[in-house]
């Protein structure tokens, strides 16, 4: 099982290893080889409209299929990729693969949904990111409105003035922009108004404590209210229970993502989920 492999993986990549230069170099070397040999793959996790229950998007989440170890989660290699400069080629692969796959699903006649891709801080610092995104959209033929980029709050706030410029360039392409892990960094509200973002993603740490911590419930409610008043879309990540979903629904949170609906899954599992929604649509129309 992938879950068990994940646990073994964590043992192989203990934190101490990161401090050992030799170990890091060897991981770097293996990541470089992995990129060359096509050992990376994407899992997709559905994003669901809370009102209709339909899948409106899916987040692309990268994994490394290490032939010796099994499936390796991003937390075990993204930091090293960032430090080694490998994040550029890796992110480019993720972006291209997510766009290509989404277009392929649409060409198969499946109900269209957007695909969300995580952009690392390093990649966001590259001035020509908008150019890269544009050329990948052209190359794959995916309409811009079916691509969304997720940037964490801390990535954006690290250099907020520069971020305004880059976000505007990206937004001009017609793609969606979301602020990931929202609530964990500190966004100045005046900046939030100047960023051309479409969506806030409430960090999992707040959502997971709905029902346990009144502080986290207050923060979640406040983020949803903030999104409404700034006319932004809002999605909760890490929804695991019906009680959490009810809480979000009662506050008119637009979308949800989490194990309660579906775990991140291999690409082969996505078409039948999208198909199921088409059935649902027909049922509604007939009712
Ligand atoms: P993220 O962007 O905040 O992604 C959400 C993470 O939460 C995913 O972990 C997902 O599997 C997990 N998750 C979703 N629903 C639930 C839930 O209900 N309960 C729990 N406990 N967890 C849930 P994952 O796939 O391990 O990714 C971790 C992080 O790695 C991501 O956080 C993102 O920051 C980064 N990452 C993933 N793919 C990429 C990528 O292609 N590029 C970059 N730069 N970063 C990536
Ligand atoms: Mg994300
Ligand atoms: Mg997140
Ligand atoms: Mg996160």
UniProtKB/TrEMBL annotation:
Organism: Trinickia symbiotica
Complete-protein stretch covered: 595 to 881 of 881
Protein name, UniProt field: PAS domain S-box protein
Occurrences of domain EAL (ranges): 24-278
């Amino acid at each position: 099982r992938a879950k068990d492999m994940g646990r073994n993986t964590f043992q192989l990549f203990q934190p101490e290893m990161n401090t050992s230069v030799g170990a890091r170099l060897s991981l770097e070397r293996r990541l470089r080889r992995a990129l060359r040999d096509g050992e990376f793959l994407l899992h997709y996790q559905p994003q669901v409209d809370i009102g209709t229950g339909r899948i409106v998007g899916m987040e692309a989440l990268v994994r490394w299929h290490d032939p010796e170890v099994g499936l390796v989660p991003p937390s075990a290699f993204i930091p090293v990729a960032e430090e080694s400069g490998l994040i550029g080629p890796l992110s480019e692969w993720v972006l291209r693969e997510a766009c290509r796959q989404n277009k392929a699903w649409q060409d198969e006649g499946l109900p269209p949904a957007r695909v969300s891709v995580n952009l690392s801080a390093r990649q966001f610092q590259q001035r020509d990111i908008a150019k890269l995104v544009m050329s990948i959209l052209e190359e794959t033929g995916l309409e811009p409105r079916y691509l969304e980029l997720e940037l964490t709050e801390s990535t954006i706030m690290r250099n907020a003035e520069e971020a305004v410029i880059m976000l505007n360039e990206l937004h001009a392409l017609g793609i969606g922009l979301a602020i990931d892990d929202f609530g964990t960094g500190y966004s100045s509200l005046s900046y939030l108004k100047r960023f051309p973002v479409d969506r806030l993603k409430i960090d999992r740490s707040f959502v997971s404590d709905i029902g346990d911590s009144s502080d986290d419930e207050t923060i979640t409610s406040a983020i949803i209210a903030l999104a409404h008043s700034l006319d932004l879309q809002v999605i909760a990540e890490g929804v695991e229970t019906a009680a959490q979903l009810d809480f979000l629904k009662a506050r008119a949170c637009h979308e949800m993502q989490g194990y309660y609906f579906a775990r991140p899954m291999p690409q082969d599992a996505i078409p039948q989920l999208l198909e199921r929604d088409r059935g649902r649509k027909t049922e509604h129309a007939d009712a």
